[in-house]
């Protein structure tokens, strides 16, 4: 296996781990000042410190009276920017 083959395998594993919707959200946030997304699609990226949640855009109240954010603004972090640039995902 060549170094290029190994790099391609690593790149595919990163994409698989971050999910296609997650990568797309990171790309949009990278290219602009942020992206509006549903938390359940990108929370794993917040936990990995690749995105930072900003202001809620829309929320809803459950039958139990709990307020839940359904859409929020997300910005790419320095770590997220570095990952996108290193693996040419931008």
Describe the structure.
With about 90 residues, the protein is α+β, with helices and mostly antiparallel strands. It has one domain. Helices cover about 50% and strands about 25% of the residues. It has four helices and three strands, in the order ααβαββα. A three-stranded antiparallel beta sheet has the order 1-3-2. Strand 2 and strand 3 form a beta hairpin. It is elongated and about 55 Å long. The two termini are about 25 Å apart.
User: Total helix count?
Assistant: 4
Described by the principal axes of the CA atoms, the overall outline is elongated
Low-confidence stretches: none
Structural category is alpha+beta
Question: Summed up, what is this model?
Answer:
The protein has helices spanning 3-18, 20-31, 39-47, 78-86; strands at residues 35-37, 51-61, 67-76. With 90 residues, the protein is of the alpha+beta class. 19% of the residues are buried.
């Amino acid at each position: 296996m060549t170094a290029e083959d190994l790099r391609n395998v690593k790149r595919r594993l990163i994409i698989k781990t971050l999910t296609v919707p997650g990568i797309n959200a990171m790309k949009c946030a990278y290219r602009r000042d942020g992206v509006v997304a549903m938390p359940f699609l990108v929370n794993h990226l917040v936990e990995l410190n690749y995105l930072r949640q900003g202001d809620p855009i829309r929320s809803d109240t459950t039958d139990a009276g709990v307020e839940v954010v359904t859409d929020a603004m997300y910005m790419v972090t320095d770590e997220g920017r570095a990952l996108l640039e290193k693996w040419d995902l931008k």
